[in-house]
Structure formats: structure tokens, C-alpha cells
Prior knowledge:
Blueprint: E1 3-8, H1 15-25, E2 30-34, H2 42-45, H3 60-68, E3 80-81, E4 87-89, H4 95-101, H5 105-113, E5 118-125, H6 133-138, E6 141-147, H7 150-167, E7 177-183, H8 188-200, E8 206-212, H9 215-219, H10 226-231, H11 233-247
Parallel strand pairs: 1-5, 1-6, 2-4, 2-5, 6-7, 7-8
Antiparallel strand pairs: 3-4
Amino acid sequence: MSLYAFASAxxxxxxxxxxxxxxxxxxxxxxxxxxxxxxxxxxLVQRDQDGDxxxxxxxxxxxxxxxxxxxxxxxxxxxxxxxxxxxxxxxxSTPVQVHAIGPVWSHLAEALRSWSGxxxxxxxxxxxxxxxxxxLETADAVVFVARDDLPSLAHLRDRLQGLREPLNIxxxxxxxxxxxxxxxxxxxxxxxDTVRLLxxxxxxxxxxxxxADDPRAVADWWALSPRAxxxxxxxxxxxxxAARVRELTGVPVAAPEEA
Length: 259
């Protein structure tokens, strides 16, 4: 159905954790594709339905090998199901594996986009020329996550400047781009100021909302009960953002499953 690419412009604002939680809130279900070129987190923090570690050889590495061999890429053959029921495409464990995949990144992006459901792709920290750029260029929508401080926003502006032409940002038929900040969800001014800052540089984006900056909740997330997660400001902030991300592609928004 749709491919959504999630990226950061600087540091570690929590993209991977946010994508994992958005997938749980996604109405109708989705796949999390861990495409971080410096090594993904899914395999490190998630377990399969039997409580065992996920298989490092089944995921991005096996899908890349299939595409290099000229085989038809059925994404389902490379997915694993986590203990919480999320389907995931496990990422690489070393940068060397990224270079091995290199020649088929564009084909990999098409394989993700042609899957029968929605794919939430975590591309990690993005720079123009990154091996994951074909994923952003193929995606139906791109979402950048950034902290609401000046250095982070400056890097965000620079990354989006580099993507203006490849994504045709702000033009008819261009890829819709959304921005989510990490900070205080009650501070609506920061997001509005960010959208205006980017607009002044000729970059048209949609403000998606602010993800609660709650490092303590994130650190203890997998130990929290479902009720505690639902009551957390962190998850409540993501419920609203999940709906707005889907609106980027014009998809009718249904109520999130755990809202």
C-alpha cells in the first residue's frame, strides 16, 4: 500500500523507538523495516513470539541477497514476528553488510513499496548521498524527527535542502514531507516556528506534532504494562502523530488500535 520513510538529521532523537511504537498503533497493521545503515536496534531490543532472539540472517540481509540473485522478492519470506505481534524486517548488524546490499537499494525500496500493507521504514540518521536515499526517493511520504533545539533544526534544514530536488518538495506531485519534534507536546509554538523556519528557506513541510521527550519511560518501555504504556504521555503523543502521518498520503484515518 504505502511506504513511509522515517529519518533523523542529527544525533539520536529516538526514531527507532518511535517507529516501533507507531507500528503498534497503526490501524490495520504494518511492517517495520529496519534500514539504519550503521546497524539497527530491532534485533537488539525485540524478541520473537517464543521469547528467543530474532534471526539476524532473515531480514534485510536475506532480502538483499535475493534481489542480487535476480530472484523475485516476496517480502513475507524475510519478515519475522516479534513478541508483541509486530512484523519486522531485521536490519544489518555491521556497516559491511550495508555495502554488500549497495547495488540493490533501489530495488529493495521498490520491494518494500509493493508490499500489500503499509511499511514504516526506519532509515536512521540521513545525509544526502546515504545508501538509503533511494528509499526516501521511492517512499510515498517522508518523516523527519528532530529535537527542538537550534543545532538539530539547522541540520534538519540542511538535509531537507539537499532533498528539495530529488523529492520535488513543495511541488505538484512531489513527495509529501512531515516533521515531528521531540520535546514538550504542550509547546505548540516550537513546531509552528519550525515549519515557518523551513518555509522561509523554500521548504514546504507538514508539522505532525511533538513526541514527548520522556527518556525514563523509553528506557523502561519493554518492562511497562500495556496499561502503563497507554497512560504515558509518550504514547499519547504518538497516537495523534500516527494519524497525521497517514494523512500525508491522503489515506482515510481510522482510530488507532490502542488509542
